From TrEMBL:
Keywords: ATP-binding, Kinase, Magnesium, Metal-binding, Nucleotide-binding, Thiamine biosynthesis, Transferase. Mg(2+) 3 binds at residues 43, 88, 224. Mg(2+) 1 binds at residues 59-60, 136. The keyword Nucleotide-binding applies. Coiled coil: none annotated. Residues 165-306 form the PurM-like C-terminal domain. ATP binds at residues 135-136, 161, 226. Substrate binds at residues 67, 328. Residues 42-153 form the PurM-like N-terminal domain. This is Thiamine-monophosphate kinase. GO terms for biological process: thiamine biosynthetic process; thiamine diphosphate biosynthetic process. Mg(2+) 4 binds at residues 43, 58, 88.
Length: 340
């Protein structure tokens, strides 16, 4: 790996390299007993609390230039910084119990800006039933916010990326592709509604939905779609050893986003590859689908297949197209890369 730059491999490959370093030779997590899930395999790490509960922990860093479009308000930057972390807590089926927010900023940042940032963070935390319990302040060339979220869930309700079985139904909450369309609209200076822009600027962690899904007993695996539906399906596939068949016609996409996409390829790009929607991707035991149908805004988009069948999209004409393994990746020469 000497002389190879991180930009040539990207975030996913670098996580694999680091996760190996953090594992003991026998493949288990280094350190003490009680690490149920360690680095690299799920949305959060999971620690055994020795009773009926477990603790879930995640951290996520956002930067002014790479994550906050110029049009975002400081309140929205704060909301998003909390939301990206709380979404990972939701992805485990857990209830959030606290957020620690570290903020690095240039010394000439206005106090009013930092207050608006903090109010946005607090609003998102409160929306999810939790609060900010600490943080850190530092001088930094560029606004950089690193959140750490903690959550709690009963061991028998914990939902992992592992657990999906062939025959399970695949579902998503909300809409897919809205944040991607918003990003494109901003970059090409085209108008879109506030609903679409807010999907990018104020992602809503699916905390309540996640808790109801975890309590239903019908869900076999769950994660969030921060890096895009396609990348999430590949992450699921790796952990659960299943394939997926997704029906293009079933993808929940806002009418406005369909109209905004100039052609079917562009629409697929938003819905599958751009990311930023922070919805939940869920697999459900088909015998138990009735238990979840009415608890939240959820759409069946396809089913789990054998691993060997790969990850495919069934077009409206019933053609099978391979879904590519790409999405929103940090540390790439370009954030959205076609070759990974
Ligand atoms: N520097 C690191 N050291 C150890 N583990 C890491 C590191 N970076 C990421 N991971 C782990 O890799 C996994 C995936 O991380 P990633 O940040 O992509 O989370 P995600 O849930 O897939 O995405 P998002 O944060 O966008 O929701 C997680 O288990 C995370 O803890
Ligand atoms: C200027 C600008 N460009 C792109 C995006 C989109 N974006 C930022 S973070 C993220 C999800 C995963 O991030 P992470 O892997 O860090 O958790 C996505 C899709 C944005 N909000 N602003
Ligand atoms: Mg996640």
């Amino acid at each position: 790996m000497k002389n190879t730059k991180v930009s040539s491999v990207g975030e996913r490959a670098l996580i694999s390299i680091l996760s190996e370093i953090f594992k003991a030779p026998d493949g288990r997590e280094k350190g003490q007993e009680g690490i149920l899930i360690g680095a690299g395999s799920d949305d959060c790490a999971v620690l055994d609390l020795k009773g009926e509960d477990c603790l879930v922990v995640t951290t996520d860093m956002l930067h002014r230039t790479t994550d906050f479009p110029e049009e975002m308000t400081p309140w929205q930057m704060g909301w998003m910084s909390a939301a990206v972390n709380l979404s990972d807590i939701a992805a485990m089926g857990a209830e959030p119990i606290g957020l620690v927010m570290a903020i690095g900023m240039p010394a000439d940042t206005e106090i009013a800006f930092v207050e608006a940032l903090a109010k946005g963070m607090q609003a998102c935390a409160e929306f999810c039933g939790t609060t900010i319990i600490g943080g850190d302040l530092d001088t930094h060339a560029e606004l950089t916010i690193t959140g750490t979220a903690l959550g709690r869930v009963k061991k028998d309700q914990l939902l992992l990326r592992r657990g999906a079985r062939p025959g399970d139904l695949v579902c998503v909450t909300g809409y897919t592709g809205s944040a991607g369309a918003a990003l494109e609209a901003l970059q090409s200076r085209k108008p879109v509604s506030e609903t679409v822009l807010n999907a990018l600027f104020e992602p809503v962690p699916r905390t309540k939905e996640a808790r109801m899904l975890a309590e239903s007993g019908a869900v076999t695996s769950m994660m969030d779609t921060s890096d895009g539906l396609a990348m999430s399906l590949y992450d699921f596939s790796r952990q659960s050893r299943v394939g997926f068949r997704v029906r293009e016609n079933a993808l929940p996409i806002l009418v406005e986003v369909r109209k905004f996409a100039s052609n079917p390829d562009k629409l697929r790009e938003f819905a599958l590859y751009t990311g930023g929607d922070f919805e939940l991707l869920i697999t459900i035991d088909p015998q138990k689908i009735k238990k979840v149908q009415n608890i939240c805004n959820l759409v069946v988009i396809g089913e789990c297949t054998k691993y060997e069948a790969g990850i495919v999209l069934e077009s409206p004409e019933c053609n099978l197209i391979t879904i590519e393994q790409r999405g929103y990746q940090q540390l790439k020469a370009e954030a959205v890369d076609r070759s990974s």
